[in-house]
Amino acid sequence: MLRDITLGQYYPVDSVIHRLDPRTKLAGTFVFLVSLFVTKSIYGYVLATVFLAAVIMMSRVPVKFITKGLKAIVVLLIISVSFNIFLTEGTPIFTLGPLKATWEGLQTAGFMGIRLIYLVVGSSILTLTTTPNQLTGGLEKSMGFLRKIKVPVHEIAMMMSIALRFIPILVEETDKIMKAQTARGADFETGGLVKKAKAMIPLLVPLFISAFRRASDLAMAMEARCYHGGAGRTKMKPLKYHKRDFIAYVILLLYLAAMIVIKK
Is 260 helix (H, G, I), strand (E, B) or coil? Predict the structure, then answer.
């Protein structure tokens, strides 16, 4: 289950999406996520599906690799869908004790489930096609206007990039600790809720210690290299827009306009 988390991982392959400027991909991800909340029509979700499928194909990242990240949200997905089916007022379908399923709830649950899945897949494509360094540069450039109101843009971008980069590292560390504790007799599967919570202590304690150790090592390495904020810093590979980025922006604008037109 832990190895199925794809958020924060980078999939190295040469594709049109990989070659896009990180600012373009950040804008595209933002537009796609916003469009999911703009539309309330089945046609809007069909358009979003076509758009997402086209991006996945152009990214050349295996669909199986992208969709395996959905296993981590199965429980959340089931809870969200169930709540919408049974707690939305409307035409009843069947009753389950005090709970009543409705057609309106079923429709809302369907849209909610699709929206949640697309949120995860859309966000995963951004990290799968963008290196941490590119993501940091893209975030810093995109939020550059906030410097005028004294917002530490570089530091925020760096923290977000490090957080994303540490997700797969901590997942791998958690998997190693679980295997080591299981070999020592720990049981993470059986028992009630209280027993499972107690069983997590041998996992969480070494995981937190490892995370703090990694953070301390990273801070010492940055200090040893005299690292400081973004003021006056230059880049070996400065970001620069190309023709493909402008074409991507046009496609994004057309997509967003179409979603707004058919939102109902």
Answer: helix
